[in-house]
Amino acid sequence: MVTPVMRTVDLRSDTVTKPTESMRSAMANAEVDDDVLGNDPTAVLLEREVAEIAGKEAAMFVPSGTMGNLISVLVHCDERGSEVILGDDSHIHIYENGGVSSLGGVHPRTVKNEEDGTMEISSIEAAVRSPKGDLHYPVTKLICLENTQANCGGRCLPIEYIDKVGVLAKKHGLKLHIDGARIFNASVALGVPVKRIVQAADSVSICLSKGIGAPVGSVIVGSKSFITKARWLRKTLGGGMRQIGVLCAAALVALRENVAKLEDDHKKAKILAEGLNRIERLRVNVAAVETNIIYIDLPEDPKFGAEDACKSLEILGVLVIPQTTFRIRIVLHHQISDSDSDYVLSCFEKLFSSVPEEKA
């Protein structure tokens, strides 16, 4: 019998963070105007700051990473029926409602994501379909990467790899977009500035509400002409908002205060992963824990899978989500303390020492 407790530790995602007091203060005092008319000063400040961080000419705030990726794909794939190459385990392909197809008429061509989050360069090149090729096929216009790669465990794509994909894209006259939902995590883990990581990319979607804990929004960056087209699409998709300085003010605080906290999140994730891997019936690929995401593999017991484990942990106040039938995902963030991590580990130990092992 699992005894319920009052303590709650929410590890479902790094999107569950609450605005800090400094964020709330900044939101309350934000200087605002109508952003659809291009006049919100706090939005302009945020966009300039993110463009500088990414080393790109211009930037635009959007309500979500999904919208940021969708707009980016549609700007690059500006003819219906054109094709985007992306990972078979990528966020754009799996978790964004098929928007590139349903709203943009863009055909996704998937390439296998390796365990480290990359796609084989040769496989990407083999997937490219030229306008001079067979008329039965769609024409490739874009390659998408994801950094960090969430479904591969928050793995960081190496700079050398991204550069090679950039060279390949140019060779075939294609554009390169990076889904940088957790690009700050990658930057901290690799010890390299964001602008260097995304140097080869034509556009990047940078989430503000994941690793760095802003309450809402993403920013997409690229050339001035890219952002001009992106603003038209944002309006078409219903993403034009008015006094968004209230949201952008919190994002500026997140940029200035929380990027420095990511290293600590990564250390906590590694320590927790090592502890979980010591539990006899659990398996964690500790070497794959490079940032703030942990995947825990459970015994393949048909009577007690990941959903059952998550429900039992919830009774103890630990909130996590099932990734597959026998895999659980944990995501660390800046509002998780050392004490929280210790408590989570103790709950897993308690749970998996009380679940009888299935007999062959």
What can you tell me about this protein's structure?
With 360 residues, this protein is α/β, with parallel strands linked by helices. The chain has 14 helices and twelve strands.
Order of helices and strands: EHHEHEHHEHEHEHHEEHHHEHEEEH
What spatial order of strands do you see in the largest sheet? 2-8-7-6-5-3-4
Residue ranges: pLDDT <50 for 5 or more in a row? none
Helix/strand-derived category reads alpha/beta
Pathway: Amino-acid degradation; L-threonine degradation via aldolase pathway; acetaldehyde and glycine from L-threonine: step 1/1
EC number: 4.1.2.48
Protein name: low-specificity L-threonine aldolase
Coiled coil: 252-279
Features:
alpha/beta; 14 helices
Quick synopsis:
Keywords: Coiled coil, Lyase, Pyridoxal phosphate. The protein is α/β, with parallel strands linked by helices and 360 residues long.
Task: Detail the topology: elements first, then pairings.
Layout: E1 9-10, H1 21-28, H2 41-54, E2 58-62, H3 65-76, E3 83-87, H4 91-95, H5 99-102, E4 107-111, H6 121-127, E5 140-146, H7 159-171, E6 175-180, H8 183-190, H9 194-197, E7 203-207, E8 218-222, H10 224-236, H11 245-257, H12 262-277, E9 293-297, H13 306-315, E10 318-319, E11 321-324, E12 327-331, H14 338-354
Parallel strand pairs: 1-10, 3-4, 3-5, 5-6, 6-7
Antiparallel strand pairs: 2-8, 7-8, 9-12, 11-12
